[in-house]
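Sync notes, pocket subgroup
Present: LS, DG
LS reminded everyone that the earlier model was apo-only. Rerun requested with adenosine monophosphate included. Inputs:
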Amino acid sequence: MILVLLGPPGSGKGTQAKRLSALRGWPQLSTGDMLRTAIAAGSKLGLEAKSFMDQGNLVPDSVVVGLIAERSSQADCKNGFILDGFPRTIPQAQSLDQMLTAQSRRVDKVLLFQIENEELVKRLSGRRVCSNCGSMYHVEFSPPKASGVCDKCGSKALIQRDDDQAAVIEKRLKVYQEQTEPLVKYYTDAKKLKTLDATLQPEQVEENLLKMLS
Ligand code: AMP
């Protein structure tokens, strides 16, 4: 199964990708995570990507297409994978189709996470991430048990992502609307798109998502 999770930043794609990956064993391929790893490693690619990301802009198509081409060719992706945050532009979707066609594969399903901007701003501005293990929290909706301490690994490094600052959030939502939303038509025309109500609790979203896959 090659599954695309499509939706604005903060709609819960990453959370659901992790849950589904644990359940079905398909790796989660998140271009955002790959880019943040490259930044943390101080690589040339990371340095190039950081300036785009800090301003809420998309990283050039060629960079992310290269990352996905390399990662999806690894052995653990043989039985399928979950794309989280890719593709984000029509050229990326076209490159993905070309790449998969060359391997006699194709995107099987695209799930659109539907949610209003007002809710996204609340979610993103309160989001905190453990910089040690990547666990996600929200200051209001899902705080850690002990304030400022990661439930999972005990680290005290719960941080706000640079691109979760108010001004950048606004830009990211605008970029989504202008550059990523056209993919809704692209995948509707390809008869691959199904829509999920992403305002529900994560457990309910997961249940609905699993029903859509069966
Ligand atoms: P995310 O963690 O998916 O919200 O991504 C964080 C940032 O990484 C985005 O705002 C973009 O700057 C960059 N990024 C992630 N995925 C892509 C992509 N497919 N195309 C271009 N830029 C991306």
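DG: Residues 9, 31-32, 35, 52-53, 56-59, 64, 85-86, 88, 92, 163, 172 surround adenosine monophosphate (CB under 6 Å).
LS: The two ends are 11 Å apart (CA to CA).
Action: DG to write up.
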